[in-house]
Amino acid sequence: MSNTGWADKLNPTVRAVKPSGIRRFFDLATETKGIISLGVGEPDFVTPWHVREACIFSLEQGYTNYTPNSGLLPLRREIARYTADFLGLEYSPEAEVLVTVGVSEALDLALRAVVAPGDEVLIPEPCYVSYLPCTALAGGVPVPVSTGIEKGFRVSAADLERAATPRTKALLLCYPNNPTGAIMPRAELQAIAEFCAAHDLVVIADEIYAQLTYEGEHVCFASFPGMRDRTILLQGFSKAFAMTGWRVGYALSNADFIGAMTKIHQYTMLCAPVTAQMAALEALKNGREEMSRMVREFSYRRRLVIKAFSEMGLPCFNPGGAFYAFPDITGTGLSSDDFTERLIREEKVAVVPGNAFGDCGEGFIRCSYAASVEELNEAFKRMRRFVEHYRSVNRSRKSERMRVGEPL
Amino acid sequence: MDKSMEILDLLARNSRLSTGQIATMLELSEAEVERAIAALEANGTILSYRTLVNWDRVNKERVLAFIEVKVTPQRDVGFDATAERIGRYPEVKNLYLMSGAFDLAVLVEGRTMREVANFVATKLAPLDGVNATTTHFVLQTFKEEGVVLTDGEKDRRLVVSP
Fold first, then answer.
1. The domain containing residue B71 runs over which residues?
2. Which of A117, A258, A345, B6 is deepest in the core (most CB within 10 A)?
């Protein structure tokens, strides 16, 4: 952080928030010429043209004003219709849908709406970088719950049970998961639903990657008996509709939760940008075919990626969703940070160190396959060379230690 | 989508994909992909494997012309006989039977305008059954086979993002 002498005036909670671990590698990767990036958390597709055109048309027609706080009613109606089709869940467009500035804002609103000072929020890790800071900024206490590769980075009811206390207020779930690509089977989610009911928890379900599920159907947490009203379901346009920069998402829940979130949203944001809302409306109305084309493309690449890591000898569990693979790199003898930095410097490939998403992500890297097949092939060629080199270095170092009788 | 259709879809967009890659992408064995491709080649579904070139980027003189051709259809064979004859000329790149004000649309490629004009005047127009031709020269190609040739959309994403 810069030091101009004013830091002691800052809110201590804000001061204590660590800047994102991704930042460090961003500058290095940006400065490196000829880099292939597998470090990007957004689709490589540009927003489909019909959506962009609808946005231009809305500007021509003069849609430049505020919208209702909770979003344009036609958009909320279309969201309710889409949710009914896609997830089989009914929400009232008038009272149970809130259009937000991306899922990021929806997440912040949900946390601020339900978390009181000192309330604990259970957060399975590895997780998206904003979960812990946003919980802390809302006055809550984030309680990370580690998951590991041996269980495919799925959190279990038993893990949550061990972390729960009388102060536990909420659970934050994200499946399909960023950064691991993990998805949750129905039976395991059912057990978590029972745990949440037993502890009377609010569930914030970030299901931004729902449509990007490749192994079976996406199971929505809110669809379990009794979970609809207990859950604040977060959804958006960024990933499935390739609309990251538009910043438009939405929250679905009971009228009390949505009403409270709308209150905060009304005073801090007023409304999501009308132009982005008009684009989102077009995406929901006419964008489903284009979306399935993009999803199919991701599923092809996912298989190439899994195969490439297995050929490289990096253990990688099968990611059932999102567009990330999360291979174990400990065989190279490098830490996540060293691996990432050297891979940029030596082979010009950018990935994200797993520890940026929580301590239990150490020893892993996140590779996004939101890149063309040609880029993926070239990146894997470089990574294979890199991994082979460090693996042999690591092996000879180990046998040297063995020779002189040191611990490995 | 059935697997043959998916193979076609992948190859139509990128004919350099190896059978191994296609097999991985579609969760098939390499032998299955090879068999499917062989069958598609044998039954005339896959005709050839090409590269889409932006010839404007290299020093190659090239002129394209769209020629509208009016044809007198013949008893029993309609436009087929004339179309077939026109299609035999190597200068003809594409050939379509059209609805509307004319009958055949012919895309012709030559090195110079004179060469194309010569082709129309000495080969195409005098053919039996050809009544009239209108030649339109192409000034610039913006998009070909679904690919935008002008400075298209670049990857504007940040190099690393959460």
1. 61-140
2. A258
